[in-house]
Amino acid sequence: MNIIEKIIKAHLVEGCCCPGEEVKIRIDQTLCQDATGTMAFLELEAIGVDRVKTELSVQYIDHNTSQFGPENANDHLYLQSVCDAKGVLFSRAGNGICHQVHLERFGVPGKTLLGSDSHTPTGGGIGMLAIGAGGLDVALAMAGEPFKLTFPAVTGIRLTGALKPWVSAKDVILKVLSILGSKGNVGTAVEYFGSGVASLSVPERATITNMGAELGVTSSVFPSDEATLAFLTAEGRADSWIPLVPDPDAQYQKVIEIDLSSLAPMAACPSNPGNVKHLSECAGIPVSQVLIGSCTNSSLKDLHLVAAMLKGRKVLPGVSLGIAPGSRQVLQMLSEDGSLAVMLEAGCRILESACGPCIGQGFSPASGTVSVRTFNRNFLNRTGTKNDQCYLVSPESAVATALTGKLSDPRTVASDLGLEYPQWQMPARFRIDDSMIQQPAAHGSAGEIIRKETIGEPPHGSPLPENLDGEVLLQLEDKITTDHIMPAGANLKYRSNIPRYAQVVFECFNREGEPTFAERAAAVRDQGRAGVIVAGESYGQGSSREHAAICPMYLGVRVVIAFSIERIHAANLINFGILPLQFSKPEDYPLLTQGTSITINNLPAQIRAGATIIAELEKDGARQTITLQHQLSNEDAELVIRGGKLA
Ligand code: MIC
Ligand code: SF4
């Protein structure tokens, strides 16, 4: 068996371990962050759970820490009090980004982790099977329910050799993205093996598994070996270590060979993480902003490298260089070993240990200028600036860029400046201080759950109609992300207020002087008709935010028709009673333009009878019948028919 098969088998509750089959697995640990966690805990309360049933559940405050107005702080208070009552650890604002802190303080090789954030697979860097999901699925896991997934077809990535100076883990995952792409990988998972694995430390492995989310795979996993033990020992958690390697005759669905020593610095170009080029191809582009941080590249290893490159140098006056350490542990160590002073001396702007600019919380670049980031996503407008130009690179390339004011290959800059590649050693001991992680109260002794006025109820869905009378509200292209559906940034503070947040659904497609998507959808809903979204391939890429299903549901959307839908988003649609359908024939896509009426008679009966759904279209008096498909299991079919899991 490979590692993924081993972990799934050890956690199997139901189903057969064959690729493509639906299985249910026991979840050992969960994590939530504040932008999805508030809804997840409201849902947990709605389910009526007294105390979580997992081995460990942690709630982090890391996304909404800007606190413009009371909304964010109200969410924090609610989460702190509900965690106390339900038996969940609470990591306070300032303690760091969920994935970084979880890796440092809680990750355990061989365990399963379900997180209400798409970058949860970061935990694969330590040998966990870590999976991202919508908040409701995580709430159910906290309630002790097994998690349902398609047993993945495992792609093995054999690493050989070792990285050359100035080439780093980010370049490895960008290389993988250039091979596998950011769409079409639903139902698969990635496992790294081979002689090159040993040369990578846990923080480097975590950079690779973190950005595996951008492949759209279910999870990415590394073995648990001596390097894992070294990391856990330095975290004072050596007793959590177990060895976990694939069997010598382990099988993979396909194997990709990567010789680490052959890699060069790479960049994901605007505006998709799958748009990868060699950095040398884009070198020379003038850059106004460089940001280093996010759950991808904010470890002590990354920031020691940054400090070593900046030592005795100045960031150019035309460049703004911001650094957000991934955790308080990292920031404390940087401060104690003098690296922070080096960064300040160089002219860096030091940000809180949080998601910050990665989720559009400030640091939007100037219009028409280029931003270079060590983050994992560069979806259009995610920076908060319209039509932004955002490149994703390694910390090495980011510093080289900040020192020259243009996108730069760090190998060239190093040779121009006479810079030696800084070698990094895992510290014998990280600075361990869990004082910003609150332990829950003993069962029954917690105070009251604090729910201020900005926190609403999670809306329940309603059953699908017998005969669906709908209208196409929007016809979209390929690779529509959850950032297109539900913008974050300045709107993130409305995550616990669905009617308010729903006003910005598909905001980026609104046209000046015309009714907004929200207004059009609500008008169709108020006529008692169903809203229908039409899209191309890989609909719902990116975030796990279930708001991308909840808010459209609130506006009356009942059906999404696409060529393909990404895993987490498809599950969120089902959870909230929106029917995901696929085209049978590509020729039907052009028929479903905005404003087309669509009727599906005997809808529940059609869903139950099999995969085929017959729909009637009508536009400008012309009628046509088309055939659509669904891929729902019997259980999911019943869920959608009844209006989703909460209903
Ligand atoms: C993201 O990177 O897009 C987020 C913000 O972390 C999301 C979660 C969210 O939308 O709250 C994710 O990746 O799941
Ligand atoms: Fe936070 Fe960005 Fe990581 Fe999402 S990708 S968890 S917003 S740092």
Describe the structure using short key phrases.
single chain; 647 residues; alpha/beta; Aconitase, domain 3; Aconitase, domain 4; 3 domains; seven-stranded mixed β-barrel; six-stranded mixed β-sheet; 21 helices; 29% helix; 19% strand; globular; binds alpha-methylisocitric acid; binds iron/sulfur cluster
User: Which secondary-structure class do the elements indicate?
Assistant: alpha/beta
**Total separate domains:** 3
- Tell me the span between the first and last alpha carbons: 39 Å
CATH-defined topology of the largest domain: Aconitase, domain 3
CATH architecture of the largest domain: 2-Layer Sandwich
Give structural notes.
With 647 residues, the chain is an alpha/beta fold. The protein has three domains: 3-262, Aconitase, domain 3 (2-Layer Sandwich), CATH 3.30.499; 266-417, Aconitase, domain 3 (2-Layer Sandwich), CATH 3.30.499.10; 468-642, Aconitase, domain 4, CATH 3.20.19.10. It contains 21 helices and 27 strands. The protein has a seven-stranded mixed barrel with strand order 21-22-23-24-27-26-25, surrounded by four helices. A six-stranded mixed beta sheet has the order 7-6-3-4-5-20, with helices on one face. Helix 2 (34-47) links the parallel strand 3 (29-33) and strand 4 (56-60). The radius of gyration is 24 Å and the shape is globular. It binds alpha-methylisocitric acid and iron/sulfur cluster (SF4). Iron/sulfur cluster is lined by residues 63, 97, 117, 119, 294-295, 355, 358-359, 376.
Q: Could you outline the blueprint of secondary structure elements for this entry?
A:
Blueprint: H1 3-11, E1 12-14, E2 22-25, E3 29-33, H2 34-47, E4 56-60, H3 71-86, E5 89-91, H4 98-105, E6 112-115, E7 129-132, H5 135-142, E8 147-150, E9 153-160, H6 169-180, E10 188-193, H7 202-210, E11 220-221, H8 226-234, E12 254-259, E13 266-268, E14 276-278, H9 279-282, E15 289-292, H10 300-310, E16 320-323, H11 328-336, H12 339-346, E17 349-350, E18 370-373, E19 389-392, H13 395-404, H14 410-417, E20 437-438, E21 468-475, H15 482-485, H16 498-501, H17 517-526, E22 530-534, H18 547-554, E23 557-562, H19 567-575, E24 579-583, E25 597-600, H20 603-609, E26 612-619, E27 622-629, H21 634-642
The chain binds alpha-methylisocitric acid and iron/sulfur cluster.
